Amino acid sequence: MEENIFIDDMYHNYFKVYRYGGKGKKVLIISGLHGDEYSSILATNMLIKNISGNLEYNVSIIPIANMGAFLYRSRTSPYGGEDLNRIFPGKRNGSLCERLAERIFSIAMENDIIIDLHSCGFLCIPHIIALYKNRKDVVDLTKSLNIRYIVESIGTQGQLMTESLKRGKTSIIIEIPSGFGGYIQEKYAKEVSDGLLNFLNGRESDVEHIFLGKIEKVRSEKFGYFRPLKKILKNREVKKGEKIGKLDDEFIFAKKDGIIISTHFPSYIFKGEIIYEISEKF
Ligand SMILES: [Zn+2]
């Protein structure tokens, strides 16, 4: 069943919800809170196309939560520039974007599990962001998905995941590699989409999960031409002191043992920009 939800009858301030009956818990799968994260939107659209079989869950899917931002190929809302994923639970009498957040949040609260799909950078690896250390429900959910890396995070105030967790819901974020201006990395979108369908059909994940601590963002100490080493992009596990890339003629080294969640793509890097992100094994 497909339903259009308009916010105040404004042309682009609406989203679609696709609902599929199932016998178990209620699950919301949502993407496009950030309008230009097209890999995650493709993953959700693939899921809608392929969803079949006896579902273990009662599923609602919102593929493009922030239609205005989607049409503008923009992360944030073109109506006032707000970041939709920083203003949950939203406000019934607030700005256009706050009212949109309020409607999405009220649907989220009808569910037991909320899976929010996003896109990380061009050279990141697919990963789950989850508050897993003290939440068995969250750990169980991550283990049922086919994504290897799970990063610990309490999230940020106003995020759908964070605000849902506060209200006792089971909630995670899935990050899928993407790129600028809506560049899509289809291979990863398909991988995540297939994994979600697997989960909804109640089949177990055959992935060996690796639980990681918080992501540390390492910033460049100076300006220069950065390029990551090919071997790091293939094998993300590094030891302290291992070479990650080159900045002009100098090597950049891993500052600790861990998994390289993302590196900057080959480009000029300015002092203070993130050069790589690393997370230690838990
Ligand atoms: Zn995002």
Describe it.
This protein folds into 2 domains: 2-212, Aminopeptidase (3-Layer(aba) Sandwich); 216-279, OB fold (Dihydrolipoamide Acetyltransferase, E2P). The strands form 3 sheets. The chain has a 9-stranded mixed beta sheet, with helices on both faces. Strands 10-17-15-12 form a 4-stranded antiparallel beta sheet, with no helix packed on it. Strands 14-13-11-16 form a 4-stranded antiparallel beta sheet. It has 7 helices and 17 strands. With 282 residues, the chain is α/β, with parallel strands linked by helices. Strand 3, helix 1 (38-50) and strand 4 (58-62) form a beta-alpha-beta unit. The termini are far apart. The mean pLDDT is 94. It has helices at residues 38-50, 67-71, 96-108, 136-143, 160-166, 186-200, 230-234, and strands spanning 2-6, 14-20, 26-31, 58-62, 113-120, 127-130, 149-152, 170-177, 210-212, 216-219, 224-228, 237-238, 243-247, 250-253, 258-263, 267-269, 274-279. The structure holds zinc ion. Zinc ion binds next to loops.
The CA-CA distance between the termini, in Å, is 42 Å
Could you name the ranges where pLDDT drops below 50 across 5 or more consecutive residues? none
Mean pLDDT score: 94
CATH architecture of the largest domain: 3-Layer(aba) Sandwich
Structural class: alpha/beta
Put simply, the count of helices is 7
